Q: What sequence folds into this?
């Protein structure tokens, strides 16, 4: 119902944009196109299809602006006063939904003075009207009275005025609002400017500027009110440091749409004037002004192109909101009346299932605004004897608490685990001073149906003096093992390094491994190694843990549907990346029905001829991991030039192929297309797992000041298409590896999530790292790297052969004199 409500609010807001544009320019076609353009703008579209406040926020702002436009056209002072009071009521109602509704107040007052200022109305009457408006605006704020009533019913304690006020004014987010940022942080202008550009593109923004000029010329009072509205919301965005900054600009984008309509009207006016000068028999005037409308539609093309390119970002049809993950977590044997401290992504499914479905009502599930709040909440609850689980990364716990996995959650405790759980299988596998004393395996993970879940139980008889990581893999018929680099992680969901383990303590350590894909039941062996970070697979002492029966894969419907018969393989769908780098692997996944899959082979073909990707035939090095009905290819081609290539499948024995219903038999079938784009690793750059290149680190000054700020700028380049949103970490360390300054953020102050980077795009990423007051003279180091918040996995820094060297770039030479 809430999702549907957002859709209704969004559609109504777009309809009001049309009505405002019609009042502003008196031309229906530009007004209609502006409303559609606003509805298709990426940010507004994304917020109008989910349970969020911004669809309703846009509706209220649009309704207020419509009334303000009516004020500029009203001939009666009495009508204008009535409209002003309605705007005041709407503003008060809007404040109960989103506090930035307050930016409607300045344009309302401005228009009131422009239309009924002291020259037209007695000052006393004007002041009285303002006071009346303030009183009317307060009335909807009575909705807030529900908060203390509900608080008492839920918690059993009075809310209290300080807590009530903190909720009303959004006290949790006040630290993100820095009113002086527009003066001292020029990066904010780049960020906000880019958000407008991303939503409209240069042609539409230019048209909006023309519309501003045209509006000032034709109805300057209305234009002034709209411009002040735009300036208020834009100014707020310049000073608000949050990752989802784009949503706070939606009202400003709404104003841009109105100026866009005015710009289109200006072109119509200009075109009509020129056409009127032509002789009537020249044949250049179409019926009902069609040529001018065509000009407007031409300017609408960039908006449509932006909408098409944004479809993948707003399409939520395959997103279940992590419901399966949340259900599996709440079915874990979590301690009664315990707490889960989650991040902003994982709180949604957990809290929804608890509140709406009534699952595990005894748990305290919460999200907090910052790292300090999480730590304070965790310490207080653990000290009070409550069991606490983490569903987010929180550093600095390993030296204070005992940590262990509870599935994907991490349990934080003051007491060590000293006995194996009853459902664990006992084992005794030695890795020098560390033993694997037990394990538990689920062939299909309840948290991800395409993975295997395993919990390992480690025990150290004495203090471990070496930093070791846990490496896991499945070995079997369809699991060819890599000989290069593999990725390890710290125990307990990457939280608990071996240096922090206490002698005798049992450490529960949860892992998920990719399941092989195949139509037949398979036998696989879970193997484990314990070794220093960045060890190569061939150097690891792999130990067998358990024989596992892998169930057959279900038939999968992959993203791209095809209908083709290649020899004995009937292909129904395929998945592949639409872009890849030169000199990199190309993964291809085929789904279908196989009579004889051994003869299937793939090639890449271009207009200049074909080059082989590899073959799925078993002899020699197998080019595929699994058997039918889903075949997974990881094929390598290092010599191809940049360009577009067709993925073609054929029968290795020369059997014919049928590429569609009733199609003639051919030698092979084109199943898709991939672009190999020229983004090789730049010379001298640091390579983070072939995904990001760090081109440059520009530190303003190597001289550090205790309590001061270290300013630096990172220059990144994306090396391939990236689906995940990675977090940059920056740390300043002293000689004893103590952290004296740290920032963890999405790039460009949280406003450039990596999933939105174009392949090959270069991104300038500035930072201001606040330093500790306690920094004695000496040498310091700067650490820079990436990690994925959901798994806490850091991206390894790799060499030319793909071997992992480290998980960070280290820059020395910083010092405190």
A:
């Amino acid at each position: 119902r809430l999702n549907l409500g957002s859709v209704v609010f969004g559609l109504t807001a777009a309809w009001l944009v049309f009505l405002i544009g019609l009042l502003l320019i008196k031309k229906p076609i530009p007004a209609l196109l502006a409303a559609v353009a606003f509805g298709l703008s990426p940010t507004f579209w994304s917020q109008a299809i989910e349970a969020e406040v911004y669809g309703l926020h846009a509706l209220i702002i649009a309704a207020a602006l419509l009334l303000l436009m009516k004020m500029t056209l009203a001939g009666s002072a009495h009508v204008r006063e009535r409209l002003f009071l309605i705007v005041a009521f709407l503003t008060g109602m809007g404040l109960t939904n989103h506090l930035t509704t307050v930016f409607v107040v300045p344009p309302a007052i401005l228009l009131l003075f422009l239309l009924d200022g002291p020259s037209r109305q007695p000052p006393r009457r004007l002041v009285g009207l303002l006071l009346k408006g303030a009183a009317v605006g307060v009335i909807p704020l009575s909705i807030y009275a529900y908060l203390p009533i509900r608080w008492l019913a839920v918690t059993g304690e009075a809310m209290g005025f300080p807590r009530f006020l903190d909720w009303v004014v959004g006290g949790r987010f006040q630290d993100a609002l820095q009113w002086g940022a527009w003066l001292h942080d020029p990066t904010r202008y780049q960020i906000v400017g880019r958000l407008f550009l991303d939503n409209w593109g240069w042609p539409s923004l230019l048209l909006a500027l023309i519309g501003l000029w045209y509006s000032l010329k034709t109805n300057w009072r209305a234009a002034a009110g709209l411009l002040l509205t735009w300036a208020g919301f834009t100014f707020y965005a310049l000073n608000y440091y949050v990752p989802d900054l784009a949503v706070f600009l939606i009202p400003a984008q709404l104003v841009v749409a109105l100026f866009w309509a005015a710009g289109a009207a200006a072109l119509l006016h200009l075109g009509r004037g020129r056409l009127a000068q032509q002789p009537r028999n020249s044949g250049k005037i179409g019926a009902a002004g069609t040529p001018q409308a065509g000009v407007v539609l031409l300017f609408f093309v960039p908006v449509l192109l932006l909408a098409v390119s944004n479809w993948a970002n707003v399409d939520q049809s395959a997103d279940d909101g992590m419901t399966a993950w949340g259900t599996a977590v709440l079915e874990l044997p979590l301690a009664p009346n315990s707490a889960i401290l989650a991040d902003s992504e994982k709180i949604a499914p957990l809290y929804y299932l608890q509140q709406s479905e009534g699952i595990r009502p005894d748990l305290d599930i919460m999200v907090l605004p910052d790292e300090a709040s999480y730590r304070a909440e965790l310490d207080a609850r653990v000290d009070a004897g409550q069991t606490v689980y983490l569903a987010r990364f929180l550093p600095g716990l390993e030296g204070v608490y005992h940590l262990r996995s509870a599935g994907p959650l991490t349990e934080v405790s003051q007491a060590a685990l000293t006995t194996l759980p009853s459902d664990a299988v006992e084992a005794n596998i030695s890795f020098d001073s560390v033993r694997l004393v037990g394990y538990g395996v689920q062939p299909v993970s309840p948290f991800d149906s395409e993975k295997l879940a395993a919990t390992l139980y480690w025990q150290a008889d004495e203090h471990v003096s070496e930093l070791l990581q846990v490496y896991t893999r499945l070995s079997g018929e369809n699991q060819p093992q890599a000989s290069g680099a593999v990725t390890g992680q710290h125990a307990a969901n990457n939280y608990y390094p071996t240096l922090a383990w206490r002698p005798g303590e049992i450490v529960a350590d949860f892992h998920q491994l990719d399941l092989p894909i195949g139509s037949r039941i398979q036998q696989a062996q879970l193997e484990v190694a314990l070794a220093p970070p960045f060890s190569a697979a061939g150097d690891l002492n792999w130990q067998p843990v358990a024989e596992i029966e892998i169930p057959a894969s279900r038939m999968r419907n992959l993203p791209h549907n095809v209908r083709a018969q290649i020899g004995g393989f009937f292909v129904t769908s395929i998945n592949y990346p639409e872009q890849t780098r030169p000199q990199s692997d190309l993964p291809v996944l085929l789904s279908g029905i196989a009579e004889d899959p051994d003869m299937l082979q793939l090639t890449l073909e271009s207009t200049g001829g074909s080059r082989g990707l590899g073959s799925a035939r078993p002899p020699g090095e197998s080019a595929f991991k699994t058997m039918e009905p889903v075949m997974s290819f990881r094929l390598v081609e290092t010599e191809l030039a940049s360009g577009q290539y067709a993925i073609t499948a054929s029968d290795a024995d020369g059997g014919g192929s049928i590429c569609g219903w009733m199609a003639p038999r051919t030698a092979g079938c084109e199943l898709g297309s991939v672009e190999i784009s020229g983004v090789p690793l730049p010379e001298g750059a640091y390579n983070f797992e072939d995904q990001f290149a760090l081109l440059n680190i520009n530190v303003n000054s190597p001289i550090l000041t205790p309590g001061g700020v270290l300013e630096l700028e990172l220059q990144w380049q994306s090396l391939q298409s990236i689906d995940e949103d990675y977090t940059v970490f920056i740390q300043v360390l002293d000689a004893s590896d103590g952290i004296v300054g740290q920032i963890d953020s999405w790039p460009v102050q949280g406003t450039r999530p990596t999933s939105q980077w174009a392949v090959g795009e270069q991104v300038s990423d500035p930072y201001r790292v606040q330093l500790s007051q306690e920094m004695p003279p000496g040498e310091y180091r700067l650490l820079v790297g990436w990690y994925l918040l959901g798994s806490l996995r850091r991206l390894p820094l790799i060499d030319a052969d793909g071997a992992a060297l480290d998980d960070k770039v280290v820059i020395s030479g910083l010092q405190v004199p």
Summary: The longest helix spans residues 250-276. The radius of gyration is 31 Å. The first strand starts at residue 339 and ends at 342. The chain is about 35% helix and 25% strand.
